[in-house]
Structures are given as C-alpha cells and as structure tokens.
Design brief:
Length: 227
C-alpha cells in the first residue's frame, strides 16, 4: 500500500459551501480513478467507516473525495452530490477517467440517484455505485421498499453496483432485497457481512477488523471494473 496526502477543501454549493476532504495518492499524476463518498442521515464525512475507506482507497492509488451534507431531503442531497462532482471535474491537477460514487445508508441512496440521472444524460458518466448499508426501508416498515429502490432499478446495464450489507440490518429485509436485485438491469455484486448491523458493526469483532474486511471487498470490486 502506498502513501497519500489529505487536503480539506470547500465545495461551492449555491450560496453555501460543503466541507470535503480530498485523499490523494502520492503518485497523483498516475491517478485516473476517483471515488466520491458521503455519510448517512446522521454524522458527517468524519464517520469512521468513510475515513477508513477513503484512506484505503488512496493507499491503493485511487483518489477519494468525501463530503458532508446534513440535509435530510434526498433531492437536496443529490444536488449537493452534483456540486461535489462538478468540483472534482474542475480540478486540473487530475485526469479522471473512472468515477465511482457511493456512501453509507442515505448517502448511497443519493449516490444511486446521482448515477441514474447522470447516466441517463450521458452513458458512462458514472462507472459504479458503492452502497454501504443501503436503507431499503425504515425499521419494520417494509412497504416503502419499492420507492426507495426506484433509482437502483432505473440504473442502466452498463453501470455496476456493489452492495455491502449486514445480515442483521433491520433496514434491509433480505428477501425483499433479493427480489429487488433480480429486477436490476445494472451489474450487481453483493457482500453480506455476517452478523452485521445497519451500522456495519458485528458483536464480538473489533471495528478495525470489520472495516478491513469491507475495504478489501470494495478495493477488489473497483479493480474488477477495470479501474
């Protein structure tokens, strides 16, 4: 694994600004893949899962840009994601040929919506979506699963999606999820974390060991996409 540098940046967003962090591999000139990440309904870009993943990505030669957007309205989150992607594209230091978007819980719902919008406008804009703990429905409210999965079902077949889910996640009924996956046109890979909660914690295991396992799956999957 290589070294990397981090820079705190601010992303213009209408009349506001979004706080973000760029994790840049030491060999930045050789970097052609970027991964954008954001958090769920609570917390911010300093969530341990996102920081760990961002550092692992940068250590493996992938540029990572994680950001904070605390709005709980999904369309607002998607607009923020658009702003972050535009900011990345404006950076002349990097030549990015592969873009992956992702996040945790509500953050990956926003990433899926962004990928759907962009890929409907121009094929191949976003190569893949990383969904950590996709919130298919609120706890014990499975009736909303189709509405929450609409953007995923509308992703085109040339898009790839990685799901990282806990087997004990109370916001993702496994039977409903399996049924949803069968409807997707996108290329899908699913990693079930045994005993994992919606927060991707596992009783009896250290956070670091769980994060190492998840990060390895993410890195391996990105490389499978030819990035």
């Amino acid at each position: 694994m290589g070294t990397f540098e981090e820079d705190r940046v601010t992303v213009p967003f209408g009349t506001k600004q979004l706080d973000a962090v760029l994790s840049v591999p030491a060999s930045a000139k050789d970097t052609s893949t970027a991964v954008l990440l954001t958090h769920g309904a609570g917390g911010d870009m300093n969530l341990k899962h996102l920081v760990s993943l961002a550092h692992t990505l940068a250590s493996n030669g992938f540029l990572s840009l994680r950001f904070t957007c605390k709005g709980l309205n999904l369309s607002y989150r998607v607009k923020a994601y658009h702003a972050v992607l535009d900011y990345l594209k404006s950076q002349e230091t990097f030549t990015i040929n592969h873009i992956f978007v992702g996040g945790r819980s509500m953050g990956c719902r926003a990433a899926a919506a962004l990928a759907r919008q962009l890929n409907e406008e121009k094929e191949g804009t976003v190569q893949g979506v990383i969904c950590l703990s996709f919130p298919l429905h609120p706890p014990r409210q499975t009736h909303s699963h189709r509405q929450r999965s609409e953007d995923l079902r509308r992703l085109p077949e040339h898009t790839s999606v990685l799901f990282v889910l806990g087997t004990e996640d109370n916001m993702c009924d496994r039977d409903l999820f399996d049924g949803m996956v069968k409807e997707l046109k996108a290329q899908v890979e699913v990693f079930w974390l045994e005993g994992g909660s919606h927060g991707l914690t596992v009783k009896g295991r250290s956070d670091d060991s769980v994060l190492d396992e998840i990060n390895l799956h993410v890195i391996t999957w990105i490389r499978k996409q030819g990035a």
